[in-house]
Amino acid sequence: xxxxxxxxxxxxxxxxxxxxxxxxxxxxxxxxxxxxxxxxxxxxxxxxxxxxxxxxxxxxxxxxxxxxxxxxxxxxxxxxxxxxxxxxxxxxxxxxxxxxxxxxxxxxxxxxxxxxxxxxxxxxxxxxxxxxxxxxxxxxxxxxxxxxxxxxxxxxxxxxxxxxxxxxxxxxxxxxxxxxxxxxxxxxxxxxxxxxxxxxxxxxxx
Length: 206
Known about the structure:
- By secondary structure, the protein is mainly α.
- It has one domain (26-204).
- It is 79% helix and 0% strand.
- It has helices at residues 2-19, 24-35, 38-57, 60-66, 70-91, 104-119, 122-131, 144-174, 178-204.
- The chain is globular.
């Protein structure tokens, strides 16, 4: 049990470093913050990470990596989606929402986009494939699959806390600064475009 707890703490430290590194999720959280849609966007992104966790726990991830062109197809789909989001943010930058009313359809759309942002990012799956099994203990009382799910939940909590802080922080800081909000939105969009191009290039040159 002591070994398992120490592994969990070690995983949390590594996971937290991964979460606080700015990337696609941060860019999307900032965009959601400007539109007052932080919660559904973060719920969607965290769900994407949990889906990747379940794929690894079920052993599907390892099979997927070995199937010819499967990972390439997933990468290109993810890169295309990130490119589309990035172009929209770059050329149609978000302005701080002023008194936005509750729209269930819009909230669901932000959640689904968040799910795709994380779920279609092949680096999330590959990271989990390389990382999660390293922090499991085959001699523990509970199965390795259950340990992986538990680790994924811990990672999801870290994601939720950090992304909520980023999203709400961006909304609060930029709410009264429309010019700055536009620039931040464009920078976030440009970051998504760069990440999309790098993702595609990494797989196509291999």
